Structures are given as C-alpha cells and as structure tokens.
C-alpha cells in the first residue's frame, strides 16, 4: 500500500503534463503485503548464501539420494545458529563447520536438530556480520514421493519412449525436498558446484558447464558441473537417465558469437528421428531472442535441455528440463532464461515477471519465425483463456502467495499476464520502443530481482508515459472491460457512444485507448483511436463518405468483449445480449422478418448451436454451452452478421 502510493506521487510529479498520454489514477489502496518465508525474519535473513557444493549419489530408479551439501555463507547479523530448510523425510547424518573459504577443512563437528523441515545448526562460535564460514551437511533418504507436479524430486517413466528418469523441480518452495537450502528469492546464490554420482550406464545433467566425467570403481560415474552466474535457489537442478548428448552451437546477436546448446535427450535413435528439427529450432530462437532482447544471458556457459516426463517444462538456469520439443514449450522455457532466471520475480506475488513475460515471448517468437497470422492465432487462443478469468488479479494476493496452483494459474499468470504486455506494446504504439523498454529493464535488473513496480518504473522512464492507471486496473485490478458500442453516421459526422463496465466490481472501469476500423462504401477503411476514461463517453468524428460497417478493436489488441450496434433507419444490423451470457441470449434483427439462420461457432470453428428460420426477435437458450468465447453469426437474405459472445455460468 505504502509503496504504490509513493510511486504514483513520484510519477505524476516527474512527468511533464504534455507527456501524460494516460491519465493518472487517483491513488487507490492496494494490498501490497508481501509473502515471506516464515523462517525468514529470524533465521534466514541472518546470512547470505555465497556458494553451494552438492555431492549426491543419484539413480534414475527412485528419488533416493545421498551425499553432502556444503553451504558457504556470510553472516549479515550476529549469528550463532544457522538454519536451512530440509524435508523431514531426509535424514541428516552429520554437520561440520569450516571457517572462511576453507571448503575442504571441516574441523568442527556441530550439534544440530532437524525438525519441521528445517535443520538448526549450532555454530562453534558467534559469527559477526561480514564473516564467511562453511557448513557441510551430510544427508540422504527419499523425499518428494507422490506429490504430483509440485514435488521437489520425482522418479518416473516417459510413456512414449519408455525411459526412466529422476529429476528435480523446486519451484516455488520445494528445493528442500532434495537439498538443504535457503528458500528466499532475495538471496541469489553466487555460484554452484554439483557433483553427481550415478551408474555408469546413466548421465546426470545440471546447471552450467560440465567440467568433466570421471569413471569410478563399482561401475559408477561422476558428473562434475559448475556454474558461476548468480542463480535463484529454485533454479538449481539435476536430472538423471539413460541420456545421449546432442550438442550444437547457436548464433547470438553478432555474427561469429555463439553459445553451445547441450541437450541430454533419451538415448534413442527414434527420439532423434522424431525431434531433431525441433531441437535445432532452439538455435534459431536463441538468435531471435538475442537480437531482440540482448544476448543470451548465460552465454559463457551453455543453454540446453534435459528430458524428463514432467508434463511440461521447467526453466532451470542454463538447462531447461523438458517433456518434449513442442515449439511453444521450447520458446517459453528459453524466454525464461531472460525473464525469470536472469531477472527473477522479487516476490512470488510478482510471478508475472516470470510467467507473463515468458508467455508473451511465445507470441513474439511466433511473430518473428512464423509470421503475424500464427501470432494472431496464438493471441486469440490466449484471449479465449483469459476471458474466462472474469475476476482475480494478475498480481497474486498475499494470502495466495504460497499456493502453487494460484501462482501458476494459466489464465491469470500466463495468458492474461502475456496480454498485459501485448496491451502495453499497443499503447506504446512503437515496436522499437517496446523492445528498448525490455532491454533496459533486463540491463538494469539482470542477475537480480524485479517486481511489477520495477518494470513499471523502467516503462515509464523510457516512454515518458504514465502507466499508474494501467497497472492499477490491469495488474492489481480484476477482470476486463465489456464494451457496448453504438454508432451512427450522419452526414459528415460519425457519432460513437461507448459504454463500459467491468466483469468484476473490483475494477469497474479500464481507462485505455481502443481502435475502430470504419469500413467505407468505396471499399476503403479508416482507423480511428479513441480514449475512454469514463463509464459512458460520446465521441464525434468528422468523416466523409458512407460508413458501411464498424469493427471494434480490429487487431485484437485488448482483452475485452464488445457488442457493436448500428442505429440505422433502414435496418441491416442487430442487437443481442446480455454479453457475457449466462443462459438466455436475446437477438433482434432490425426491421426484418424471420432470421434465415443463426449459428454459434466455437473458436476452434465447430458449430455448437444452429437455428434455422428463427422468429425475430428470438431468445436462444445457451445453457448447454460450455463456458468460453464464441462467434454468433446471423445469416440474413443478403449478408452475414458476426459478433463475439462469451458464455459464463453463474
Ligand atoms: Zn513458465
């Protein structure tokens, strides 16, 4: 609450009046409480993690692990107890302490307790702020069983190729299922070493560079990985299976610069026959993103994929764990390397910083690689999902911040989150400026954290525009606008009345521009932009010629539903409502007899409702329809009339 009010004050005063293309909002109290790890205040905030060195014996047959974790920490307060999180079902067998950077000289055996998924280590002496020390925790066991998608560690068999894989997935707060960890976003780890011991028929993937593979006695192998980029705790990972290494290089933004793309794919000729082209597409995506956003942020190490049957993908830093190589999945997880990994959400409530941006890069990837039509299809689909979210905000409320199903809600965090960026791009009305905003933001917050407010500050500084209203209505606010547009063309003037309401009482008005296309009788089209900042607004536009039709939001720039009614004495248009519709939809064709045919199409093009020789007016019973967007089409004797409707059950 305090933070938002301060921002609005600064922005309004910092921007010259002429540059305020969007009107500032009155300061509204938004609950800006931030979720914190319950252990944070007393224990976790007392130290800063510098380095982890995990040495783990792993298998692809189960989630059993065993070994040690060395944590190099620096005290930021006086500290006599070090607390790390670790699932109770893992057993701690010993804790040792070393001073300074002496990571192989653990002289002191420490007393510890392990309870309520945390290990409390009694230090040999009080550490003062600035002092570095290392703690080595030996542990092992089985954790994360039968916990579904949000388990820290899973062992499962890929149903298509039959390979058995053990893999980790720590986001948001499940890293403690497989290693002793400080689960606080604000403390990025400076560097990590991961030594993985497995059977010599297996390969073990992890972050960063593979320093080497050593053959060990007893038919075992050691994979030694190392990364030197700052990393959020939930991005450490391993995956172990019968893999094969499929590596190639991908070009960055400048000719001659490249990064290795190291893929640990199932050791199967069939798999490579099925997916080689798609895997190689990663190279084109890296080049495309590097050109638009700045070079791949971990270019001194690698990018890559490790396959696992996780039902999607997880953007582990420098190596995504992935189910298969579907274009949009690859594009999404790769985008996270910039948005989520290089710049990480400051709090889970700002998961938009990760998921909204990565989702929007799917649209950008489609636009760059397949063309605008594919991007339009992506956006229509995203909007159809986001239209189902008539309430709830993209910003996650504090009381839902530890609920992974809310954090990773497809309609809100991903699709509506992506559409927010699409609308920002529309408001900026200049692609070069939009990508400049993204690059400046990545530069400023790279290797660190950002909140929605941080992004807004860059957006406003780069554009000179005020986005306080936009964020209040679209990021913290709920739902989307419903427009009722009525218009007539008299002489040389177009009269347009726009009445707006919100799907949620939390946000009754969205002050945002909209476009209309006016289709003239000579076949030409004129585009006009309107800016609405009241619930009902009347616009008058001088316009010569005869307007045959008006198309609202012709490029699908805005999340909305609209009904457009033309007032005309000779008929030809129709009215319908309510929209969104719950059960009964009223349809009336002006000044006409029976309606030849009414058809409702789903967005995938299927006919879901048909009525021939309908009376006029007519009331349609739409109770059997599933919730979602549809096209309502009326066939007249001479023309086809079309409108978007949304079905929402109460
Ligand atoms: Zn994602």
Q: If you had to describe this structure to a student in words, what would you say it looks like?
A:
Helix 2 packs across helix 3 and helix 4 packs across helix 7. With 650 residues, the protein is α+β, with helices and mostly antiparallel strands. The protein has 4 domains: 2-32 and 342-475, Neutral Protease Domain 2 (Neutral Protease, domain 2), CATH 1.10.390.10; 39-240, Immunoglobulin-like; 480-567, Aminopeptidase N, middle-beta domain (Immunoglobulin-like), CATH 2.60.40; 571-650, Immunoglobulin-like. It is elongated. The protein contains 10 helices and 36 strands. Strands 5-4-8-2-1-11-14-13 form an 8-stranded mixed beta sheet, with no helix packed on it. A 5-stranded mixed beta sheet has the order 16-17-18-20-19, covered by helices on one side. Zinc ion binds at residues 332, 336, 355, 358.
Helical fraction equals 10-25%
Number of strands: 36
What is the CATH homologous superfamily assignment of the largest domain? tricorn interacting facor f3 domain
For this structure, the quaternary state is: single chain
Beta-strand percent range: 35-45%
Shape: elongated
How far apart are the first and last residues' alpha carbons, in Å? Answer: 32 Å
For the record, the CATH architecture of the largest domain stands as Sandwich
Secondary structure elements and their pairing?
Blueprint: H1 2-14, E1 47-57, E2 64-75, E3 79-85, E4 90-99, E5 108-109, E6 112-115, E7 118-127, E8 132-142, E9 153-157, E10 164-168, E11 191-199, E12 203-206, E13 209-216, E14 220-227, E15 238-241, E16 243-251, E17 258-266, H2 269-293, E18 303-307, E19 313-314, E20 320-322, H3 327-338, E21 343-345, H4 352-369, H5 372-386, H6 404-407, H7 410-428, H8 431-445, E22 448-450, H9 452-463, H10 468-475, E23 481-490, E24 493-502, E25 512-520, E26 525-532, E27 536-542, E28 547-552, E29 561-566, E30 574-577, E31 584-589, E32 595-602, E33 607-614, E34 618-621, E35 628-635, E36 640-647
Parallel strand pairs: 1-11, 17-18, 18-20, 21-22, 23-29
Antiparallel strand pairs: 1-2, 2-8, 3-7, 4-5, 4-8, 6-7, 9-10, 10-15, 11-14, 12-15, 13-14, 16-17, 19-20, 23-24, 24-27, 25-26, 25-28, 30-31, 31-34, 32-33, 32-35, 35-36
The protein binds zinc ion.
Zinc ion binds next to helix 3 and helix 4.
């Amino acid at each position: 609450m305090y933070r938002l009010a301060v921002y609005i004050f600064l922005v309004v005063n910092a921007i010259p009046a002429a540059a305020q293309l969007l009107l500032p909002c009155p300061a509204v109290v938004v609950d800006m409480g931030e979720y914190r790890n319950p252990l944070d205040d007393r224990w976790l905030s007392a130290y800063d993690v510098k380095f982890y060195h995990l040495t783990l014996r792993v298998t692809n047959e189960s989630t059993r692990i065993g070994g040690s974790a060395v944590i190099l920490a620096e005290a930021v307060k006086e500290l006599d107890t070090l607390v790390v999180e670790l699932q109770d079902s893992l057993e701690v067998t010993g804790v040792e302490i070393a001073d300074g950077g002496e990571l192989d000289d653990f002289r002191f055996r420490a007393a510890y307790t392990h309870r309520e998924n945390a290990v409390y280590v009694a230090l040999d002496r009080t550490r003062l702020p600035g002092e570095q020390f290392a703690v080595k925790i030996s542990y092992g066991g089985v954790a994360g069983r039968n916990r579904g998608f949000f388990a820290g560690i899973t062992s499962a068999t890929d149903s298509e190729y039959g390979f058995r894989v053990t893999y980790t997935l720590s986001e948001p707060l499940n890293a403690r299922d497989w290693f002793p960890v400080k689960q606080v976003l604000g403390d990025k780890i400076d560097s990590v070493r991961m030594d993985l011991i497995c059977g010599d028929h297996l390969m073990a993937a992890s972050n960063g560079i593979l320093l080497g593979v050593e053959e060990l006695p007893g038919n075992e192998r050691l994979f030694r990985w190392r990364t030197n980029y700052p990393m959020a705790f939930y991005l450490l990972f391993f995956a172990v299976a019968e893999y094969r290494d499929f590596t190639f290089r991908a070009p960055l933004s400048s000719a001659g610069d490249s990064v290795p793309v190291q893929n640990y794919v199932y050791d199967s000729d069939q798999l490579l026959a099925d997916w080689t082209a798609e895997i190689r597409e990663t190279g084109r995506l890296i080049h495309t993103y590097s050109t638009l956003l700045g070079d791949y942020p971990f270019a001194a190490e690698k990018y890559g994929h490790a396959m696992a049957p996780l039902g999607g993908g997880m953007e582990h830093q420098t190596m995504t764990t992935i189910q298969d190589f579907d274009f949009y999945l690859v594009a999404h997880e790769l985008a996270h390397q910039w948005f989520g990994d290089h710049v990480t959400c400051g709090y889970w409530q700002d998961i938009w910083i990760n998921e909204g941006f990565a989702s929007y890069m799917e649209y950008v990837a489609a636009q760059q690689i397949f063309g605008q039509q594919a991007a339009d299809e992506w956006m229509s689909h995203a909007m159809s999902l986001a239209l189902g979210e008539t309430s709830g905000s993209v910003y996650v409320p504090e009381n839902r911040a530890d609920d992974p199903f809310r954090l990773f809600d497809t309609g809100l965090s991903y699709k509506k989150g992506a559409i927010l960026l699409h609308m920002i791009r529309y408001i900026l009305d200049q692609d070069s400026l939009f990508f400049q905003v993204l690059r400046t933001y990545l530069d400023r917050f790279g290797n660190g954290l950002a909140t929605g407010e941080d992004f807004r500050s860059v957006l406003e500084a780069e554009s000179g525009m005020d986005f306080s209203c936009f964020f209040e209505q679209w990021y913290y606010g709920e739902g989307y606008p419903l427009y009722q547009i009525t218009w007539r063309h008299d002489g040389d003037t177009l009269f347009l009345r726009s009445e707006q309401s919100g799907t949620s009482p939390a946000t009754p008005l969205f002050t945002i521009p909209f476009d209309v296309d006016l289709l003239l009788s000579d076949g030409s089209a004129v585009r006009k932009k309107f800016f609405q900042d009241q619930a009902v607004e009347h616009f008058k536009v001088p316009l010569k010629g005869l307007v045959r039709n008006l198309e609202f939001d012709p490029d699908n720039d805005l999340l909305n539903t609209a009904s457009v009614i033309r007032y005309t004495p000779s008929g030809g248009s129709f009215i319908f409502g309510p929209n969104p519709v719950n059960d009964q939809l009223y349809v009336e064709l002006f000044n006409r007899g029976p309606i030849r045919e009414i058809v409702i199409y789903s967005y995938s093009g299927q006919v879901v409702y048909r009525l021939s020789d309908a009376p006029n007016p007519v009331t349609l019973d739409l109770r059997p329809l599933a919730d979602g967007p549809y096209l309502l089409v009326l066939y007249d004797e001479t023309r086809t009339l079309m409108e978007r409707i949304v079905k929402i059950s109460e």
